[in-house]
Amino acid sequence: MARYALAAASAVVSATLVVGVAGCGAFSREPTQAPASVAASPSPSSTMFDNDPTRFGPDVVRYAAEAAIDPQLLMAILYNESYKPHDPEFQRSWLKLNPGASLGIANMHEAAFDDTKRGRFEDRDWLELPDDPKLAIRAAAWYLHDLAARLPATWAAPYTKDELLALGYNAGPSSMLEFADGAQPGPVAQAYLDKLHDNWANAAAAVK
Questions:
Q1: What is the pLDDT of residues 85-96, one digit of tens each?
Q2: Phi and psi of 69, rounded to 5°?
Q3: Distance from C-alpha of 164 to C-alpha of 152, rounded to nearest angstrom
Q4: CB of 189 within 8 A of CB of 167?
Q5: Distances (CA, A) of 165 to 3, 22, 31, 93, 162
Q6: Could you say which DSSP state residue 103 is in?
Q7: With bands split at pLDDT 50, 70 and 90, how would you rate the model's confidence at 22?
Q8: 60-85 pLDDT, tens per residue?
Q9: What are the domain boundaries of the chain?
Q10: Predicted pLDDT at 49
Q11: Distance (Å, whole) CA 193 – CA 126
């Protein structure tokens, strides 16, 4: 019995690590200006996989307007990022295992959040993101705003502005500019863009 119990425990830890590693990669990017003992495995909660962002439609519309970005894009980004467990306790536990993890329903890294909050909501802290979805949405909106400010007036690649901003959200501003110049996205960035297209209609419905 002890051997079976040990095997089961190992499986839980392995599953947790897989989820955490995947979560780090999905929002792997540079911040806007900057060059986003082992803890016990987090325990699943009843809200751990309740990641449907549709209920945040009014907040998405509000903060997209504040940051002057497309609310459909912001909602589609939240759909893209909804693969990862957003339960606050899970995120805090995973942060102990991986200090470089991303937090909140928009999966934002600390450096990106700190860059984005300057002159806007400087009294807020990155560690608040797991418990404050509205702050996470607002930060994501302004990050997209800052990415848009870095785009040239025209670009050679056959991408829309929203597509380039989504690529920038996933791969970073420098990569976004390379894609605008015609560079081909790698498998991860392309998968993110494909997922955005898949989520586009649902995002439109959610922000009506």
A1: 889 999 999 999
A2: -125, 170
A3: 11
A4: yes
A5: 50, 21, 14, 30, 5
A6: B
A7: very low
A8: 999 999 999 999 999 999 999 999 88
A9: 2-31+50-206
A10: 52
A11: 26
Rounded to an integer, what distance in angstroms lies between the CA atom of residue 205 and that of residue 7?
44
Residue 143 dihedral angles phi and psi, to the nearest 5°: -65, -40
71 is written with which tokens?
């609310």
Asked if residue 36 has pLDDT above 70, the reply is: no
Residue that is written with structure tokens 């995002």 in the block: 203
Bridge partners of 108? 103
Instruction: Show contacts of 140-143: CB within 8 Å, 24+ apart.
Output: 140/63, 140/74, 140/77, 140/78, 140/106, 140/108, 140/169, 141/60, 141/63, 141/64, 141/66, 141/67, 141/69, 141/74, 142/63, 142/66, 142/67, 142/116, 142/117, 143/32, 143/108, 143/112, 143/116, 143/169
CA 58, 49, 29, 114 dihedral sign is positive
What is the spatial distance between Cα 70 and Cα 49, in angstroms, rounded to a whole number?
Answer: 27
Please give the Cα distance from 21 to 9 (Å, whole number): 19
Tokens of 61: 């519309």
CATH top-level class of 2-31+50-206 = mainly alpha
What does the block give as tokens for 33? 């200006």
| φ, ψ dihedrals at 125, nearest 5° | -120, 145
